[in-house]
């Protein structure tokens, strides 16, 4: 889990900072931020190999579900674990997110300990 | 009785006596052997009476020790449970401190009034977990609280158009007294009774004792069924930071406007002279 590269996709600067703050618990973590799905795809094609994506659902330009779907269709990116972090807490939203290929679904407001545990489990596999 | 039969009789008696005596001797021998072996048994097992006593004492001591260890083990188990609970509490507090740190950092990162309001909205949604809420500001000239930003008009109609006089109803009272208001009952049960005038929670935005507005919560996100104990504290702290940020940005935009007016006036004076 050391030296992992995380991509945080979130339109709210407050949430981006909060998630990034939690990720600093991982030793030498590199946190790359994106403001929407399109920005995230650009960052994914950049020089940094991303180990895990954390994405919101409701974002302008391209939402999180579309991003998950595109990542899963891409041969180079499809193996990257994805965590959806969203205010949408309904069971059908969760099922939809997981069906599209997300590995975990966390509802806001987030608990840092829960986020860390979920990431640790995904990166330990 | 002839002399011969007398002799036979005597011999028979003698033999019987002999057998009896031999038997007694054997029994005596057996008993002596038993006694001797009983006396020598402790020695055979290698333990003297003192040793047995010592071992008995040791057993008693070890039993006591065992009881003490059991008691200590139970105590430690209890302590462990306490530590585990404490750990969860500390994790929660860490989480809240991180939330507070990020929220205050964001709130004080700009002097743009609209941006500050946007950040307050983000905080209320993402950190408090509110679905329908309003941010009200107090107009000190008219003494009226008015909505300046809101979310969730679909679940709480007119949340974007609240206008309440200072001191009127729950909201007016919260603004007047500076005391937070929370519904102290099951949120599901009270869901039907939530109205614009009677929200789930209303927290004053105050700088020291000076109330500049309110954050009013009408509905929490589906996955958040109630306020947790730490939410109240976090909410108040966030409100305090939000109040300063809103107040500073308001003052800043007012001074900017005044500066622009003065600058325009000066420009006018210099061009006409």
Topology at a glance:
The complex is a heterodimer of chains A (125) and B (273).
Chain A: E1 5-9, H1 13-23, E2 30-34, H2 37-44, E3 52-55, H3 64-73, E4 82-86, H4 91-100, E5 104-107, H5 112-124
Parallel strand pairs in A: 1-2, 1-3, 3-4, 4-5
Helix pairs in contact in A: 2-3
Chain B: H1 3-44, H2 49-107, H3 113-128, E1 130-139, E2 144-151, E3 163-165, H4 169-177, E4 181-182, H5 187-190, E5 201-207, E6 210-220, H6 229-272
Antiparallel strand pairs in B: 1-2, 1-6, 2-3, 4-5, 5-6
Helix pairs in contact in B: 2-3, 2-6, 3-6
The rounded Rg of chain B comes to: 48 Å
**CATH architectural group of the largest domain in chain B:** 2-Layer Sandwich
Query: Element order, helices and strands of chain A?
Result: EHEHEHEHEH
Task: Write down the overall mean pLDDT of chain B.
Answer: 85
As residue ranges, the low-confidence spans of chain B are none
Contiguous low-pLDDT stretches of chain A (5 residues minimum) are none
Read across the widest sheet of chain B, the strand sequence of neighbours is 3-2-1-6-5-4
The helix-and-strand class of chain A reads: alpha/beta
The Cα radius of gyration of chain A reads: 13 Å
The best one-word shape of chain B is: rod-shaped
Instruction: Determine the strand fraction of chain A and express it as a percent band.
Output: 15-25%
The main pleated sheet of chain B reads as:
6 strands, antiparallel
Gap between N and C termini of chain A: 10 Å
Characterize the largest beta sheet of chain A: strand count, sense, and whether it forms a barrel: 5 strands, parallel
Query: Number of helical runs of chain B?
Result: 6
CATH C-level category of the largest domain in chain B: Alpha Beta
The number of distinct helices of chain A, counting runs of at least 4 residues, comes to: 5
């Amino acid at each position: 889990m050391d030296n992992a590269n995380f991509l945080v996709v979130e339109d709210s600067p407050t949430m981006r900072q909060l998630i990034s703050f939690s990720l600093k618990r991982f030793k030498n973590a590199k946190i790359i931020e994106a403001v929407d799905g399109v920005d995230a795809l650009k960052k994914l094609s950049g020089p940094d190999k991303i180990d895990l994506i954390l994405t919101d659902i409701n974002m302008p330009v391209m939402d999180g579900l579309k991003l998950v779907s595109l990542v899963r269709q891409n041969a180079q990116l499809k193996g990257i674990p994805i965590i959806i972090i969203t205010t949408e807490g309904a069971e059908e939203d969760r099922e939809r997110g997981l069906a599209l290929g997300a590995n975990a679904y966390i509802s806001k407001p987030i608990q840092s300990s829960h986020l860390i545990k979920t990431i640790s489990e995904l990166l330990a596999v | 009785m002839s002399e011969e039969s007398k002799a036979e009789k005597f011999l028979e008696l003698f033999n019987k006596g002999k057998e009896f005596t031999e038997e007694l001797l054997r029994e005596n021998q057996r008993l002596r052997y038993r006694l001797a072996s009983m006396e020598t048994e402790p020695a055979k097992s290698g333990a003297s009476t003192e040793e047995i006593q010592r071992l008995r004492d040791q057993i008693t001591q070890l039993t006591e020790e065992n009881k003490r260890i059991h008691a200590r083990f139970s105590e430690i188990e209890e302590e462990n449970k306490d530590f585990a609970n404490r750990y969860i509490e500390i994790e929660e507090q860490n989480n809240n401190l991180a939330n507070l740190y990020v929220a205050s950092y964001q709130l004080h990162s700009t002097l743009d009034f609209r941006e500050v309001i946007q950040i307050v909205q983000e905080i209320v949604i993402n950190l408090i977990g509110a679905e329908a809420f309003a941010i009200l500001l107090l107009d000190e000239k008219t003494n009226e609280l008015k909505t300046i930003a809101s979310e969730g008009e679909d679940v709480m109609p007119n949340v974007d158009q609240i206008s309440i006089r200072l001191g009127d109803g729950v909201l007016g009272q919260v603004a007047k007294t500076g005391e937070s208001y929370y519904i102290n009952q099951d949120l599901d049960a009270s869901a039907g009774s939530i109205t614009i005038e009677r929200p789930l929670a209303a927290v004053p935005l105050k700088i020291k004792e000076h109330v500049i507005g309110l954050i009013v919560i009408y509905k929490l996100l589906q996955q958040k069924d109630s306020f947790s104990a730490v939410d109240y504290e976090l909410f108040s702290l966030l409100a305090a930071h939000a109040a300063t940020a809103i107040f500073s940005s308001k003052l800043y935009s007012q001074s900017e406007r005044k500066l622009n007016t003065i600058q325009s006036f000066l420009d006018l004076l210099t061009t006409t002279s």
